[in-house]
Write a structure and sequence with these properties.
By secondary structure, the protein is of the alpha/beta class. It is about 35% helix and about 20% strand. It starts with 8 loop residues before the first strand and ends with a helix.
Length: about 220
Amino acid sequence: MIKSSDKIKVKICCISSIEEAKLAIKMGASALGLVSSMPSGPGVIDEKLISEISTVVPLPIATFLLTSKQDVKSIVEQQRRCKTSTIQICDRIIDGNYSDLREALPGISLVQVVHVTEKESIEEAIEVSKYVDAILLDSGNQKLEVKELGGAGRVHDWLISKKIRESIEVPMFLAGGLNPDNVKEALEIVKPFGLDVCNGVRTNGKLDREKLKRFFQSINC
């Protein structure tokens, strides 16, 4: 389960291979994001590879299955194939509910993504926080014809993120356009439980050791 601590948690997302997983862990990652089928965005890998990666990741490193599915039955079936410790729900559930997920997948942590667009995102985050283990704030847009459910590489309004963090009782991850140059400011403003980064530590789509090093240095300085 996701528990609060004084040390900032860092989730490296869009992991594409066992080698990338090992590099992210070596550099200090607390969690790895494994992206399944999405309507848009980077980092998608097939479920067989997600399973291969998740089964070799050592505890206590968390493995997050990023899913765009909106019905509980499909999410449950997908997690059982992928064998991750956490489900990151990137869209809204419209068939079934969180209780159904918990009953079907005991011991699996649930993280709900809230895409920060307007102040209405605050109310959404407060409501869903009652049912999940953590909230993850990102900069997608579910209203587009082709939905953006993550990986857009855009910074959203951190003051809204701060308000959400102050208004909920579960841990909150901050995502959206983070990189080695802006992450310290993000921490100072939002004070999240954890950070989620993808594009900001990559070069030409590949995990970049030097950018990872700078990212962690920025957090710890």
